[in-house]
Write a structure and sequence with these properties.
It comes from Bacillus timonensis. The protein is an alpha/beta fold and about 500 residues long. It contains 13 helices and 23 strands. It binds zinc ion (ZN) (2 copies).
Amino acid sequence: MRFLLENNILIPEPLSDKSDAKRITDIESSYPQPLNPTFEYSTELQHLLYGKQLLLDEIPFSLENIHQHYLNGYLQYRRCISKTKDGYSCVRCGNADQKLFASFGCARCKQDCAYCRKCINMGRMSECSVLVSWTGPSPIFEIPEKPLVWEGTLSPGQQRASSELIKAVQTDDQLLIWAVCGAGKTEILFEGIGTALQTGKKVCLATPRTDVVIELAPRIKSAFPEIDVIALYGGSEDRNKTAPITLATTHQLLRFYKAFDMIIIDEVDAFPYSVEPMLQYAVNQAKKDISSTIYLTATPNQTWKKEIQAGKRKAVTIPARYHRHALPVPEFIWCGNWEKILKKKRLPGNVMAWVKNHLEIGKQAFLFVPRITYLENIVKILQTLDARIEGVHAEDPDRKDKVARYRSGEIPILVTTTILERGVTVPNIDVAVLGAEDKIFTESALVQISGRVGRSAKYPTGEILFFHYGRTREMIKAKKHIENMNKEAIQHGFID
Ligand SMILES: [Zn+2]
Ligand SMILES: [Zn+2]
């Protein structure tokens, strides 16, 4: 879109008869208009646009209607691409890497038009495209006096974190919740979310993975049955709605702008949030200037740990699981040069014995391996013991089906790459890692893998073995991490 500027008012080119239109990127200000309180705005448009930044093409309203809302101060036109002395930068995703911009002969602005390649899958951000945001009043939602109806009880560890969280919400502060795998982190959030809702705050829970959004939605809905909850991920049907509680993948946050008073980032250490500055940029854009930010993790990275120790980052730890049993501590078992043995289509004797024993006693187990290339051979060898044994990896088209069959008990042993290090919870299993010395098994990966064991209250214990050909610093750090959590839990009386 190109605009004309008349008396400090932007006029879209199709609505003007003048001819000196400019692209929005080339206009210095966004010329916001004063709010006309008597204007009869569209509540449909309000619900679509509130807290969002959408491309003009994404808005199913006529340009005349949209423009009336601008003239009356209810929305804002914003540029998509900024030009700085270093080149272009993308307003939506923060990309400033010039290699990730391209340009084309644009039919709309009839010029060479640069666009951002980085976030193109969410609609093209170019020099002549326009982002539209709501600047009118926010939608009002009926909030019951007690929005939270959950009646479970929190463990003392959960309770401590929940109290800190409420404080952070009330003071619009930041807080890192460092909770061991199986601490029951969703329940910790309930009271804090309830507090936010009671004061009219809008809440977002963002997580890197679509599966988690889908899994969390019914749990949040049943804790807050009278509150609208929307779930956003690629292909979700809720994308044009607004609600007091939004669950979203971190990618979906790119469509939000100053929307949330409380934002919770789940698995903050997990790929891709930790390695992708775009997603951190998105979080900053999506929250209001005054808001609380809550980070959840079981395995904070080194920088964060140092900041916590130095008192530079507010954090609360939950060192114990809700069922009051200690975390299973990994045991290191030397298994020789397993790669060499594997070339002869065999596995180390102690690894074979471990698998055989599990088949005999009928206890399910995960066997983690470092790479897909080993996985197939290992599965083939193990299938000679029991044909029901399967392997799973990131590109496996049958991944979901195999995990479901494992959950139902149909698959006795599942061989896996680190893809299953998080999220999958199966009661009463043991876990082993083959080749625990491999680079891929970082402290955090090993802590997450160990966290698969003993999660349910019915089966709170289990075995976690690291079969290795030379112990690494990461292995030792992982073991220490778990032991320290157990020590802290004992000190606070969180475990029996
Ligand atoms: Zn253009
Ligand atoms: Zn971009």
